[in-house]
Amino acid sequence: MLSIKSTSQVCDQLSIALKKKRKWMKHSRDKAAQLSGVPAPTIRRFEDSGDISLRQLLMLCQVYDDLSSFDNIFSLPKARTMDELIKIKGGTQ
After folding, report:
1. pTM for this one?
2. CB atoms within 10 A of CB 15
3. What is the pLDDT of residues 69-93, one digit of tens each?
4. How far apart are CA 28 and CA 53, in angstroms?
5. Distance in angstroms (rounded) separating the CA atoms of residues 56 and 43
6. Which distant-in-sequence residues (6+ apart) come within 8 Å of 88 by Cβ?
7. Radius of gyration of the chain (CA)
8. pLDDT tens-digit readout, 10-56
9. Which residues, other chains included, contact 39 with Cβ-Cβ below 8 Å and sequence gap of 6+?
10. Torsion sign over Cα 65, 32, 8, 92
11. Which domains does the chain have, with CATH numbers?
C-alpha cells in the first residue's frame, strides 16, 4: 500500500508527540521512566531519534493514556458488498 509518510517520519512524529505530552504533564524523563518502567536514557533516545522498541512505546503510551490509539491499527476495512464481507470474514488466514 502506498503511503505518503515514511517510517522515519512516523517515528519522528511519535517522538515529538510523546515529548510534548510528557512536558504538558510536567513530567521529567526520570518521572516518565519511573511511571512507565522505560529507562530514562531510552526515553531520551526515542525523543532524539525516534528509536524505541514497540513494547517500550506501548509502556509509555499506557502512562499517557494513549494505549487505545493502537486499537484499530490493523483493522480490516469495512465491507461495502456481500462479496467483500465474505472475503473479510472468511478469506483471510
Report:
1. 0.75
2. 20
3. 888 888 777 778 888 777 777 755 4
4. 20
5. 9
6. 76, 77, 79
7. 17
8. 999 999 999 999 999 999 999 999 999 999 999 999 999 999 999 99
9. 33
10. negative
11. 1-93 (1.10.260.40)
